[in-house]
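Internal ticket #5521
Category: modeling
Description: The requester needs a full-assembly model to guide mutagenesis choices. All entity lines are attached below as received. Residue total reported by intake: 211.
Assigned to: D.W.
Attached entities:
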Amino acid sequence: MMNQKLKAIASLIDKKDIVLDTCCDHAYLAIYLKKNKLCKDVFASDINIHALEQAKKNILASGLIIPTYLSDGFLDITNESINTVVIAGVGASTVLHILDGAPKRISKFIISSNNHQEELRKELYKRELYIQKEIIVFEKGKCYVILLVTKQKLKENKLSLKYGKSNNKEYFEYLLEKEKDILKKIPKNKIYMRFKCYLNIKELKYIIKRM
Ligand SMILES: C[S@@+](CC[C@H](N)C(=O)[O-])C[C@H]1O[C@@H](n2cnc3c(N)ncnc32)[C@H](O)[C@@H]1O
């Protein structure tokens, strides 16, 4: 079923995009994009045969035509028309694995990692992939970070790589509360770990104050 996270991802798709949803699971995003004519074309792929079988059933039931691929990232995908790639609902290491296998001509990615947001931003930057926009979605007690990433060069600073550029105060307050909880759990003798945590709290308070 389409949820707020998938709708936020869809909001970053343009009419001219030819989209591959690489971790399509049940193909809800692809069906939504095609049904609402939000892109030029859409394809769906997944590494898991059971997920893909369900995707095919859902596509059939929708009455739409959406080609699917069983593939680990881009490994078994030769379609050269794709210009936009969605990688969502997997961990940062899988995101990077899929990105690293993507054809060089692809210049637009929409990414939502389940974890390690800071490390992911830094790895993207190293690969000369730049975050143009960051959307935060809170849904059912979870926080999702959605990145619009292209090759259009942008300068980043230490804070934007660390905490992102969403402009979402609720997100920074959420990060601040997480840091406070972490601090409570760090033993008093772990001075360096406590120092790093204090620093994060100070930075987050600074960002929130400026908003
Ligand atoms: C939790 S679902 C995410 C569904 C949807 N993209 C979302 O964000 O809600 C994760 C899907 O990613 C697929 N997946 C994991 N690693 C993958 C890979 N290397 N290549 C393609 N699909 C992968 C899994 O099989 C699973 O169906």
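Resolution: model delivered.
Comment from assignee: The mean pLDDT is 97.
Ticket closed.
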